[in-house]
Structures are given as structure tokens and as C-alpha cells.
Amino acid sequence: MTAPTPLRDLHVPGRPLVLPNVWDADTARLVEAAGFGAVATSSVAVARSLGYGDGEQAPRQEMFAAAARIARAVSVPVTVDAESGYGLAPAEVAGRLLEAGAAGCNLEDTDHATGTLRPAEEQAERLAAVRAAAGGALVLNARIDVFLAAQDPRAVLADALDRARRYLEAGADCVYPIHLTDPAVIAEFTEAVRPAAVNVTYLPGMPGPAALAELGVARISLGGGLWQAARTWLKEHLAALARGTPPY
Q: Which portions of this protein are annotated as coiled-coil regions (predicted)?
């Protein structure tokens, strides 16, 4: 059997790694069986499957345990959505992820204790500390949250790029301007940080993976999209069953 390609090597601008995010061992196995080179978790999907809300409402021990079950279930690298680190010190975040068998992680710059963005310098220091603790054993995907509430992506582009450069200098392997959907702004963002890897979320109405590759994207995440689609399907079929219609 051919050894899986290291996760870091799968991040190539213009030839993006596509990550259909999963929430348990079974969905991880489906992703691997479909031929994808890596598995990513979705924090919202994992938390909701465990009975909690997103945004670090789930107990961290349950989230890391779920990550460990997923990593054990597949032979390809697993990158874990570790939200903002669950209130742990950076070295402990790195240790918990490595103990779970993760090859990479997302770390976002939202502070869930306050519901606000951390200052860019503070987040860069946190990323540098995770990098120092993990060495090269974790691929760090630094999530940038400034676009989440932005009505005009260009109005926050300068802030996003400042954060991206700081996070890359701190040791991040990839930067993730989550919910940046405008193709022209995506192209500006990738060009501004080239040759660094850029992750985008694939949302309805966005260009497809081939077009995103042309924009210089190196990683495409589906976030909670597949979980939401599966949940919608189940909800509709349960309603049909309740009406007396066979669901399949």
C-alpha cells in the first residue's frame, strides 16, 4: 500500500486540497474511500453530533476524543478544527492534538470567552507558541475571522492581509479567510500572500473548485456543509415517515 502524502505537501496554490469536512469515524471513512487525500473535521458538525452547540460549547475532552476516533479510523492525514483552542495554553493545544493523532489543525482568531476577535499580535504569539510546541508535526491553518460579519469584504481586506502576514511569520502553514466568497477579493488575497497557501470555504453560489484553483487557492473546505445537507435530508425523510410515506 502506498503511504499517504504528508498533509503539508498537499497544500499547493493552484492545485487545491479539497476537504469534505466530517463529524465521526464513519463519515471519515467515506471520505477516504472516495479517494480524498486527507480528512478534516468540522467543529460545528462534531459538536452538534455530540449534543452541543458550536463555538466551544462542547467540552474539550469530548472534542479531542472525537478527533482521536476519527484519526484512528483512517489512514490518510486528519486535520482537526480546534476552534480557538478551548481555553488551553498553546503548548497544551499542540499536545492534545498530537495525542489524538492529528496531522494538522485549524486555529481561529475569535476569542470565544469574549465573542470578539483577538488582536492580531496576540493571535500571532499564540500561533508561534503552538508551532514551537508541535515543531513540524502539525500543519497549522490559521483562520482569519474578519470576513464573517463584514458586509463589504474590501472594507476589511487590509486587516485580513495584516493578520495573514503576521500569522504566516509566526509559523502558520496556511491562512484561512473564512467566508471570503468574492472571487476578485480571493484573487487579491492569494496574490498578496503568494506563495503561501490560502484556504477558502466552498459555499453555495461560489465558483467551483476548478475556478478557485485558477484564483490561486491551495485548500478548499466545506465546513459544516455536508453535515447540514445530511441533516436536511434526514429531517425531510423523517417527516415523510411520520406522514406514513416510506423514506426509501
A: none
pLDDT digits over 199-220, tens only? 999 999 999 999 999 999 999 9
CA neighbours within 13 Å on the CB side: how many for 103?
19
pLDDT of residue 2: 65
pTM score of the predicted model: 0.95
Which residue ranges form the domains of the chain, and what is each CATH number?
Answer: 7-242 (3.20.20.60)
And the C-alpha cell for 210? 476548478
Which cell numbers in the block locate residue 181? 466568497
Any residues with CB less than 8 A from the CB of 57 and at least 6 apart, and which? 47
State the Cα–Cα distance between residues 146 and 100, nearest whole angstrom: 29
Q: How many CB atoms lie within 10 A of CB 225?
A: 17
Is residue 31 within 8 A of residue 22, CB to CB? The reply is yes
Residues linked to residue 219 through DSSP beta bridges, in sequence order:
17, 199
Residue reference for cell 495525542 = 99
